[in-house]
Design a protein that fits this description.
Elements lengths: L1 E5 L3 E6 L4 E7 L33 E4 L2 E4 L12 E6 L2 E7 L2 H6 L4 E10 L2 E10 L5 E3 L1 E2 L3 E3 L11 E5 L6 E2 L13 E2 L6 E3 L10 E4 L5 E6 L2 E8 L5 E5 L6 E8 L18 E3 L4 E10 L1
Length: 290
Amino acid sequence: MDYQIENSHLAVKIKSKGAELFSIVDQRTQVEYMWSADPKFWAKSSPVLFPIVGTLKENAYHYQNKSYSLSRHGFARDEEFKLEDQQKDSITFLLTSSPSSKEKYPFDFELRIKYEVTDHTLHTHYLVKNSGNTEMYFSLGAHPAFKVPISDALNYEDYYLEFNKSEDIKRWPITREGLIDTTPQPVAMSGNQLGLNRELFVKDALVFKRLSSSHVSLKSKKDKHGLTFNFDQFPFLGIWAQTGADFVCIEPWCGIADSVNHDQELTNKEGIEKLSANQLWSRTWSAELF
């Protein structure tokens, strides 16, 4: 089922399946900022990544001497969330653990995703509760795909990403198996700007660790429309697009794919979050549209 929240500036649409954001429209100009989820390229628009981010080595992990299997990015994106609360300008969805989820992920949890609009900004809040009586280990990430070009008369290459601080950026390559390689590689930048082009993601996403920047802006010198994306609560950032598709994903992560030399122990996983029994964990990203 589809839901909408809005204020005088923005109209935002979300699906109950995966609690997935799929539209952000400027109320005044009717400009759409989200990717259309064209299945010819990629049929998603903004999946939530939980309880893992990226790929596990051999699609499996070990916890307390047992082996579990999880596919890339986990299962939450394919689950039906329950509508918990809706106001005109905000909405909250809930996913809880179940017997089927515990077959592949042996923890009791409550995952809430809240969307709210204030002025020209969409805020996306994640709240995880450990509803069990043992420590819980998890990762969580976002995967929103923004339309590029935003203005149909322009080209993909007319846009760039601008980080708010100067960065000596290095990407952590992704192997054919979806794992993180051990040696970072330099990324060609113009100052603090990364130009978008169709060849940028031929070798999968650009994966960054612990950048100095807290936000990145999608801009064009030929377009007055764009957005500023705040990811200051997330230690990892992915930038990705399907080759030939008209979007760019800006992906803030608390967690990352397994490295090629990972021992597959969940508690040793890079970036893994640990939450005590009955404790809460929260993170927020935001996108200011202009």
